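To whoever is covering the structure queue this week,

Two jobs came back overnight. Logging them here so there's a record in the thread.

Job A:
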Amino acid sequence: MFGSQCTFFKQDARILLLKRRDVSRVLLAKGYDVHQASTYLDAYDYFCMNTAAYDGATIVKDLCDIYGLDLDAMLHDYQYIVLNAGANFVTKFKADWIYAKGMERKGKSQYSAFGRLVGLTIVGLFIVPFKSKKANKEEIQKDYKILIK
């Protein structure tokens, strides 16, 4: 989105498998339980199979959790691409809230987390009305319950 690009998922499959372990370890170290971590790992696995789909974090590039990958931006992109979270205001807000709270939980600044939430909300006012596909409300709600509680 907006010219961002990321080549993280274009690495060799063996490297991505090793880095998957790093993703899991980072999440567990940050206090995520196995079910919460699996939400991120589902997104990670999707982008390993669909390497061109992930374009990275927009604007702010220095909030990586492992070298070259912002886990919250990855999950957010997954929710928008696969679950079509941006199709209505409720699912969009839930995905954006998961994004902001995930950043906060991982120790990224509240300014970054909630500044992005405000920006996403403003942009959504102009984009959501033009979406034609339906959101996968059940999956987004499941992610919301697992990650936000």
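Job B:
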Amino acid sequence: MAGLLSLIRKGAKEITDKLERLRIDVIEETTETTKFSSSLECQFFPEEFSDSKEVEYATIDILGMSHPIYMWVYSGERTISFPIVLVQEFKNYEFKPAPEKAQKGIKKYIRTEDIRFVIKWLRRLTYPFYDVVDKAYPPPLLRLYTPNLKIGYGKNLNMLYVYMTRCDVRYEDLYPDNTPRVAVVDVEFIETRASGEKFLRDRFTDFEDLKLVRR
């Protein structure tokens, strides 16, 4: 991430290459309670991406043995985290495909993003909402698209259903009037399932692309 931020601070021409790469999409899922959907296409593909999975075992200590006996209890959380770099090179916000690329279906964006808007959009995904009788509904279910990483399962290898669990903001550079120029949003998600989906991940059936043979 330091490399990308250094290029941004210098206004280096090499940043153009990064703007042409694939992006991660965060999509707010429409549900029966929210009836609402919106999405964010990240300005850059992150240079760092963390994917961790926990498994819980119980231990039985036996006198005289060199190791305890391990008994599997359950598989724990799968956590996805990465930084979202935001750049606002021009305070007059504009974000659109270049005309010469539009016909080919290739989006090439200019080097500016409305940082304050994006931060609020991301941070709101950690909040509930309340109806007219103050009944609380939880933060939204999200779809996380990660082109070519193949961190999903089955037919959706590039997509996971997730909840956001962390949204931390660092302002790396400000204009003289305190308008953000460069910011980094560290986000964290936990894997979950779609509404109504059977959520029993199997090391064979959910990893068919590995072509494993069950003995």
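Note for Job B: The chain has one domain: 2-210.

Please reply-all if you pick these up so we don't duplicate work.
Q.
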